[in-house]
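Service request form, structural biology core

Requester: graduate student, group of Dr. S.
Request type: structure prediction, single chain
Budget code: on file
Notes: please return the result as structure tokens.

Sequence provided:
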Amino acid sequence: MCQNNGSSASRLVALLVCLFGCLAVGAAPGDFADDASLSAAVCPIAYQLDQSPSSRGYHYSFFGNAFFINEQGYLLTDAHVLEVFRDGGQPYILVSRPNSPPRLLQAAIVAVDTEHDVAVLLATPNPFVGNHKVAFLPLAPDPAFRGQSVIALSLHPPKLQNAHTFEIPREDRSSGEVLSYESTQLEKSAPAADVFLLSHPVTLGQSGSPVLALDSRAVVGLVEGRWLRSSAVSIAKSSSLSTSTPGAAIPIRYAIALLQRHSISWHTPQSPPSSMPAR
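Core staff response, request fulfilled:
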């Protein structure tokens, strides 16, 4: 299973060493894994440390990734990536720009579901109406299934402990397949929830990364952590796991349910935005 310690200090350490996210739309299945445009939908989540930039841009702390779901500037990520901001502090996202260094934009926390470890952000100003290199990802209407081919894309700063905005983030892409569904706790004292396991291990910085189906190129889940079968604790966000440990992902249905409750639109593959009002 994955590990989720109760203390805020251990959670902060877990966030810093954990995971980040990204992926985007485009390309036929044959060249999907090599499509350079995918990272336009993904943004590292950051905390700005400087009030004014240096010759390397703004200094920031990196916590994970989020990805755009529509042209209004809404993003999805893991709730645990935002834990450090629960007691205050302004989260930012690092957005790419054509022929310019990346730029930090404020990201408002719109909704959080800690039981299923999903959260919604809103970038301000909306990068889709400015000079930014951005795209959004469609969300799969059908759940991931065993044996399905998937790919995960993550971004991280070249130096995790000394990140600056003028440095282009690096990509990590992992391809594999869905192994199985498991039931576990994503939050201490919360009801059991589903996760699905990935054949490839989760690596440093992939929390919040979208997991895309290779055929439809739609998001079927978000990278959650590493699965510790022998652990008595549910969700692992530890950095000391072997490379043979499979990854765990949150089914996209939990994120869609959160979007529905807040009447936020999203896209499905080759379709206009979908939206359902909150009940």
